[in-house]
Amino acid sequence: MAARRTLRIGLIPGDGIGREVIPAGRRILEALPSSLGLNFSFVDLQAGFETFEKTGAALPNITVDTLKKECDGALFGAVSSPTTAVKGYSSPIVALRKKLDLYANVRPVKTAVGERGVKAVDMVIVRENTEDLYVKEERTFDADPASGRTGKVAEAIKRISEHASFRIATMAGEIALRRQKIRQTEASIHSKPMVTITHKSNVLSQTDGLFRTTARAALSAQRFQEGGVSIEEQIVDSMVYKLFRQPEYYDVIVAPNLYGDILSDGAAALVGSLGLVPSANVGESFAIGEPCHGSAPDIQGQGIANPIATLRSTALMLEFLNEEAAAAKIYAAVDAQLAEGKLLSPDLGGSTKTEEIVEDILRRL
């Protein structure tokens, strides 16, 4: 009998509805069939704006240390970000990405087979996670009168490196190859693997130009060419247009941090709701599953948050922990629930409670 593998998972609910959906992720892990050979243990950890208000730290050191020393992966719920600057506060998920070198944000956007009222979509947006404008190097200063301007001037650093661009494009290529393997056993709207490099090098010739040329070099590697991965490019503004006009065309999209952030949130509209869209923050040896929705304070505590993004994020985390069979079980149960279309949360036009949806998916699992 093969040895069972135990995975220790950090649970970070964060703010708002994060505290309502992260327990669903734990429950589905605990409900996985024993035949998969997996055991799970869990550790509850804190991060978020409410943690900052209580402790003065949005990301306590103990959370980072525990993840580094004790955990194989984690689930992160949601963060409430103030609309105006709060002294001492910065996003804990952005900080976690840097501290754990989770250099890729991977966001699949897919409709379930038989899902009603939406175009067939099956793409993955692979977003570089550590640099671009998100290095958060900003400053505000008084305009130089000699320039003919008055008042304040704010500027931000956009940083693109060859190292980060190469490894994110390499991950996009690997995902394209993996998706092609899955297509050999499952129906798909795509017939061959393709990676679309998104940039704005026609204007930003140095930064986006470096991303473009480095990504092309990475994807030209022999294993990708032998695997039939085709490479194309798209300027980001026309990419937005084409993404909504012909979403069924795209397979894997790779982009710098800012463009990837915008494209992935926009793509969620193609499948009906952010409440359906998962993501994973991925490094060389660690993955954090994170639903794409925010903390949704307007529905907090009402028991109507859509748990599906969290359940899919849990499966995505398992994929990057090399537990594809377990991930497939979760995906199949979620897709079956969506395809049936009877139990819909309010964001999808229904009135089903969070708990009812979770119970239905657990039954299917």
Automatic annotation (TrEMBL):
Catalytic activities: (2R,3S)-homoisocitrate + NAD(+) = 2-oxoadipate + CO2 + NADH
Pfam families: Iso_dh
Involved pathway(s): Amino-acid biosynthesis; L-lysine biosynthesis via AAA pathway; L-alpha-aminoadipate from 2-oxoglutarate: step 4/5
Domain Isopropylmalate dehydrogenase-like residues, every copy: 8-361
Highest taxon of the lineage: Eukaryota
Any one of the GO CC terms: mitochondrion
Keywords: Amino-acid biosynthesis, Lysine biosynthesis, Magnesium, Metal-binding, NAD, Oxidoreductase, Phosphoprotein
Gene Ontology biological-process entries: isocitrate metabolic process; lysine biosynthetic process via aminoadipic acid; tricarboxylic acid cycle
Keyword NAD: yes
Leading EC class: oxidoreductase
MF GO annotations: homoisocitrate dehydrogenase activity; isocitrate dehydrogenase (NAD+) activity; magnesium ion binding; NAD binding
Family the entry assigns: Belongs to the isocitrate and isopropylmalate dehydrogenases family.
Cross-referenced PANTHER family: DECARBOXYLATING DEHYDROGENASES-ISOCITRATE, ISOPROPYLMALATE, TARTRATE, HOMOISOCITRATE DEHYDROGENASE, MITOCHONDRIAL
Full protein name: homoisocitrate dehydrogenase
Species of provenance: Ophiostoma piceae (strain UAMH 11346)
